[in-house]
Amino acid sequence: MPRKKQKVDTLEEIETNIKLLCDQSNNHMKVREYYKALTGYNQALELNNTDINALISRSKCYLLLGEASKALQDAETALAEDKNNIRAIYQKAESLYYLGQFEQSLMFFHRGLRARPELASFRLGVQKTQEAIENTIGTKTRSTVPPPKSSKSRKSGDNTPKSQGPNSARPQMVRQKPTKADLERRNARKLLGELCVDKEYLEKLLLHPDLVRADTNTENISALAKEAVCFLNKRQEFWRQQRPCTALPNHKNLPNDALPKWF
């Protein structure tokens, strides 16, 4: 009898510790300290690797860090414990969306919407995923359609070259072909919007020879700048896969948890 009571006390103590660790990590998430939050979630899952709340919370944290594959893995583990858990369904749908698997993401957003039609998050998920699929299909369709023929065609009997017309003496301006770097910069501005300016600044900052001198024991500016550039590169690649020719909305209109701690 004492052994059984001791076992119950141990399980209760583990659950209490998991809750405390998750609560601390949730507070870190609110102030965008995602790596500190991740450490707490990892410690909680070391105590119980199937704790659903810890798995779902870590999945959300992974998404904010740009680790969509790990976020999906945690969401699937949580669903293996409870296939009807609405938060786990949402996390799986979001993870699939960020991985560019829009069809599967749409299926799970619909699944959550059927279970909880009053939740706006699932309605918005269905909408944004449908738009992503339409944009992807539309881009592929446009790339396969040949350009339209000119409506102005020469008459069969007119063999006079255009260069001999009355305006042939006007000098023609030669348009310089953009370089590969120019095209990449142009695409980055379309995809990242105003965040592209921050990315370019950070990239130039990392090349500055005096940057290492600015690093201290308490604040490593180089590491933070590299971390920020890495995050923006992942965001840019995601938007490139979702809608190649559409710019990201103004970052001022994004929710606070959609941006890393550096902004």
UniProtKB/TrEMBL annotation:
In the UniProt record, the signal sequence range is none
- Give the matching InterPro entries: ODAD4, TPR-like_helical_dom_sf, TPR_rpt
Could you tell me the superkingdom of the organism this chain comes from?
Eukaryota
Query: Sorted alphabetically, which keywords does the UniProt record give?
Result: Cell projection, Coiled coil, Cytoplasm, Cytoskeleton, Repeat, TPR repeat
- Presence of the UniProt keyword Cytoplasm in the record: yes
Residue runs in coiled coils: 65-92
For the region Disordered, what residue ranges are annotated? 133-185
UniProt keyword Repeat, yes or no: yes
Q: Where in the cell is it found?
A: Cytoplasm, Cytoskeleton, Cilium axoneme
Quote the cellular component terms of the Gene Ontology held in the record: axoneme
Specify residue ranges for compositional bias: Polar residues.
158-170
User: What is the name listed in the Swiss-Prot or TrEMBL entry for this protein?
Assistant: Outer dynein arm-docking complex subunit 4
Gene it is expressed from: LOC117569251
